[in-house]
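Structure first, sequence second, as always.
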């Protein structure tokens, strides 16, 4: 009886040719696993294609809500901005499993080689030499790599973008959007309470029609090389902006500043595939503490790719009009600043005097 292998299957160029390749090179019984994370594909067609190319079984799982609540929203709370990849997760979850990564083993060296293989084996694929981009899509973003993007000096072609309008195509009037958060988790849009999937889908529509969320990024890969990719994340851009503004209102200064470092580290862990690690769990504990007061609302104005904040409210707000205003009140005496400034400036005065004495 042949050994079984479970293939993470998308129906794109790579996984379409991997099924026959696995059967040719390993004689495996291939089970295709299709995770629905909001990629927008016709899943029935994907299943049919997997069977047609040699899969013995196809399993489809709706992972959209889990993807958002267990992964994306945790990263949102942490302030992690990098795109998500989980290259090493299996080593923590099931270290006994043998992992096959065809790109590390087969003789195919480029997407053009993959297209040749598909043609030789009669495998239908959407990619072509004219449309050579590598794309991945989920509820949070679409990534585009390859083609003209491999030259960092090239602008993306208009046809590269799949979801977000250009600023020229966006409406000639601003659109305002209100966000509701509870402990750092988005729960409503424009006063409507929505489940996570519906909420992100709606924000993707709103952001995309207002040209919000196009990202052209030169990034640092795990091995030290730089790569260039273009991303579309309309709903994500809106949520990140709104969440940051609510944190600015509710987080104490030192916590807010330290959390920026945590967000960078959190993003690095996600990007390097180190999600299932003790450090990520420890960072989650810190982030959870910071989010207990991140409850309130933020209003944004969207116009041709620009996002402007027009309002923030929270019962946990640390902003006090009587302290921040220009009118003197009983809670703050401007004369108190004199002694504070003298103490704060003591190191600078001491250093200046020392330098003057040396100069003499």
């Amino acid at each position: 009886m042949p050994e079984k292998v479970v293939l993470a299957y998308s129906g794109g160029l790579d996984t379409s040719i991997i099924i026959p390749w696995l059967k040719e090179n390993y004689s495996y019984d291939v089970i295709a696993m299709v995770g629905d994370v909001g990629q927008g594909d016709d899943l029935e067609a994907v299943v049919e294609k997997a069977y047609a190319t040699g899969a013995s079984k196809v399993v489809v799982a709706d992972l959209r809500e889990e993807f958002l609540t267990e992964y994306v929203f945790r990263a949102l709370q942490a302030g992690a901005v990098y795109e998500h990849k989980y290259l090493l997760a299996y080593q923590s979850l099931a270290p006994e499993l043998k992992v096959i990564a065809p790109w590390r083993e087969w003789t195919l060296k480029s997407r053009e080689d993959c297209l040749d293989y598909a043609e030789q084996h009669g495998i239908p694929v959407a990619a072509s030499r004219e449309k050579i981009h590598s794309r991945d899509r989920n509820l949070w973003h679409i990534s585009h790599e390859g083609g003209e993007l491999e030259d960092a000096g090239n602008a993306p072609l208009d046809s590269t973008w799949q979801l977000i309008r250009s600023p020229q195509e966006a409406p000639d009037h601003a659109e305002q959007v209100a966000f509701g958060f509870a402990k750092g988790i988005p729960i409503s849009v424009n006063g409507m309470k929505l489940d996570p999937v519906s909420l992100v889908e709606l924000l993707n529509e709103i952001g995309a029609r207002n040209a919000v969320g196009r990202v052209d990024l030169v990034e640092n890969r795990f091995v030290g090389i730089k790569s260039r990719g273009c991303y579309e994340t309309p709903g994500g851009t809106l949520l990140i902006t709104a969440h940051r503004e609510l944190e600015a209102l509710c987080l104490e200064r030192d916590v807010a500043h330290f959390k920026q470092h945590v967000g960078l580290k959190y993003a690095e862990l996600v990007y390097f595939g180190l999600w299932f690690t003790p450090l990520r769990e420890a960072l989650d504990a810190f982030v959870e503490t910071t989010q207990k007061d991140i409850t309130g609302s933020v209003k944004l104005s969207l116009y041709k790719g620009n996002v402007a904040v027009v309002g923030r409210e929270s019962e946990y707000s640390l902003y006090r009009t009587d302290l921040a205003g220009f009118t003197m009140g009983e809670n703050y005496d401007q004369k108190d600043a004199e002694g504070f400034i003298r103490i704060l400036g003591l190191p600078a005065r001491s250093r200046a005097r020392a330098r003057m004495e040396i100069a003499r």
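Margin note: The chain has three domains: 1-62+85-132, 67-77+140-319, 321-359.
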